Every structure is written in structure tokens, then in C-alpha cells.
Amino acid sequence: MNDDEPTSQITECGSFDVLRDDLAHPYVNGNKLRKLDAVWPALLAGPARHVVTCGGAQSAHLVAVAALAAGTRGALASHLLVRGEAPAAPTGHALYMRLLGGNVRYVPRREYAARGAMLAAYAAALCAPPDGPRPDQIAVLPEGGAMPGALLGSARLVRWLAGELGAAPRDLVLDCGTGATAAGLALGVALLGLPWRVVGVEVGGPPGEAARTATGLLNEAVAEYDLNPGVPDAAQAALRWVPRGHPRRFGRTLPGDGAAVRAVAAATGVVLDPIWTLAAWEAAAARAAAATVGPAPRQLMLHTGGGLALCGAAQRWPEQY
Ligand SMILES: *Cc1c(COP(=O)(O)O)cnc(C)c1O
After folding, report:
1. Residues in contact with 47: Cβ distance below 8 Å, sequence separation at least 6, in sequence order
2. Residue 195 and residue 274: Cα distance in Å, rounded?
3. Molecular function (GO) terms listed (predicted)?
4. Do the domains 35-145 and 10-30+147-320 match in fold?
5. Ligand 1 pocket list (CB less than 6 A)
6. What is the pLDDT of residues 8-67, one digit of tens each?
7. What is the Cα–Cα distance from 145 to 204, expressed in whole angstroms?
8. How far apart are the first and last CA of the chain?
9. Looking at ligand 1, which atom is closest to the CA of residue 183?
10. What is the pTM of this model?
11. Does domain 35-145 have CATH number 2.60.120.280?
């Protein structure tokens, strides 16, 4: 977000460690903060007066952009294009993106499917009135903040972690949607030559999708920032993609999720949500339990935060919560 070195807290939770990035900011959850770490200052330094982006009704990215835009006290206005219909009673991220002052527009799914065209048409309409902004005063961010510049913040987090943890082998375990956060962590591991692996739990999309997006972003980042051409291969070598332990369609919650979250909170004080972070917790716990023979890398779960995303699902499956 600024020139300060990003810091967080590392807590031991029994057989593995947790990076408490969920505590980073009340409305900008851990991994969205990391993804915007380099992007946002660049945006503020440019001519932009409006930022346009898109996502689902419970998108943490949309709330993050609304919160950071609110922090500019009028210098930047946020425009949030949300997939689907407005909920009858907004809750969780759907509520907070409005409370934080975002200009929220719900877009029918068919129109939303062509994201690029949708974002471009919205930006053009903003500029259309005679007193409207110039095109260069509109910044457009992709869904989920998945852009090459997003990798830099996660890479900077790895540098901070290496200072805290030293260079012993580690597995960084995190829940993934687009894979942009994992790609940035792998970039940091590659740039620093650390003996670390990045274990991405595929939560947000079909198998293989996060890996494809991560690969694309790594290649784009290497071109854009003129990095050593060996970096993408080293980053790929650090990446591992694993399915989540209890698979389900993204956004659903299963019987037992509420009990699992309550048990972790009771034992450790850490609050998870079954949409995202429970998947990473379970993966880190399973990997720590499996690694009982010989020297194995210690697991560090990145708690990416974003628990408000559960509010919509908790309304639909109240019996579990
Ligand atoms: C957005 C989000 C993710 C997905 O991050 P990617 O960089 O798209 O993989 C994971 N967990 C939480 C809590 C999120 O809000």
C-alpha cells in the first residue's frame, strides 16, 4: 500500500504455522491487500480519478477496491460491476461494497460473461458526458485483481517472510481462486532462490484453471518487469497445485463446515470460513500430519482473510451456522 515493508503476524497453531494476514485490514482482506500492494500506489501516482472493476456478489476484491478508494477521500471513485442480480438483503461483501461508497451496478450474467467488453463499455459511458472524465482518468482493474502487477505484492511478502523465518525449507499453503497470489509468492521464492514451495489449494475454479492463469501472469510479469528469463521456470518449480480436501462447487458449504470452523476457533482462536480459508487450513494440517517421517518442510498457512464472503452462503444454508 505504501513504502512501508508489509508486516503481519506469524502464529504457531500446533503442527503448523499461520500467517495472520486476515488481521491486516478490516475491509481489505489479506490477499487482496497483497495483490494491490504495488498496483494501488501506481494508480494513485497516475491521472486516474475513477477505478472500474468487476466480480461476484461476495467478491473481496470489490470491497478492497471500494475501501481503498474511500481512503483517498474523493480523489478516486470506485465503480463495481457485480455479476448477477442484486440480493434481496445485501450482506457480507455485497453490503460492505455499498457502505464503503462504491458505485455498485449489478450486471446480468450473459452480459457479464464478456468481461472485457463490459468493462470497456462502462468506462466509455463514464467518459461520454461533456463534463465526464477523460479516458486516461479511468483505471480498469481485472476481476480479482489478477494482473501482472499484482504479483509484486506477494513477492514482497515472501521477502518479509524470509527475514522472519530464515531460509529453511518451507511450504506456503494457501487457498486459490485465480492463482495470482500463489504466482506472486512463487515469483518471490524464485527471485530470492529460497528452498520453499508454494502449495496452492484449488478452491475458486475447475482443476487446472489457477495453474493456467498463474503461468500466464508469471510470463507477463517477467516480460513487463524485464526479469531474468529463468525466473518463470524457477517459479513453476516452486508451485504445487492440490485439490481441496472436501470438494464442492465454489461458494457452497457442506454439512460439517460450521462444526469444523467452530472447532478450529475453539482450539486456536483463529476464525476460518468454509468458502476459502478452511480449505487451506485443512491442507496445511493434512500435510503437517503426513510429514512425520524424516525432515519435512514446516507448513505455513497463509490466512488470506475474507471471511465476510460466507455471509451470503450462511443465509442460504442457515442450518449449518
Ligand atoms: C480472492 C481470494 C482468494 C483467491 O485469490 P487468488 O489470488 O485469485 O488466487 C483466496 N482467498 C480469499 C479469502 C480471497 O478473498
Report:
1. 134, 136, 137
2. 30
3. D-cysteine desulfhydrase activity
4. yes
5. 29, 31-32, 60-61, 144, 146, 175-181, 204, 276-277, 304-306
6. 999 999 899 999 999 999 999 999 999 999 999 999 999 999 999 999 999 999 999 999
7. 14
8. 35
9. 7
10. 0.96
11. no
Pick the catalytic residue: 8, 59, 78, 154? 59
Grid cell 450462511 is found at: 314
The residue contributing the CA closest to ligand 1 atom 13 is 306
What does the alpha-carbon distance between residue 71 and residue 25 come to, in Å, rounded to a whole number? 12
Residue type, 178: T
User: Using CA of residue 261, residue 266, residue 268, residue 270, what is the dihedral sign?
Assistant: positive
Alpha-helical regions (H) of the chain: 30-36, 39-45, 60-71, 92-99, 109-112, 115-127, 150-165, 180-192, 209-224, 231-238, 257-268, 277-290, 310-316
Half-sphere exposure in the Cβ direction for 257 (13 Å, CA): 25
pLDDT in tens, 203-254: 998 999 999 999 999 999 999 999 998 999 999 999 999 999 999 999 999 9
Annotated active-site residue 59? The verdict is yes
The residue assigned the cell 508489509 is 6
Contacts of 38 (CB under 8 A, 6+ apart): 149, 150, 152, 153, 156
Measured between alpha carbons, how far is residue 44 from residues 22, 128, 149 in Å?
Answer: 25, 23, 14
| Amino acid at residue number 90 | P
CATH number for domain 10-30+147-320, candidates 3.40.50.720, 3.40.50.970, 3.40.50.1100, 3.40.50.960? 3.40.50.1100
Domain borders along the chain are: 10-30+147-320, 35-145
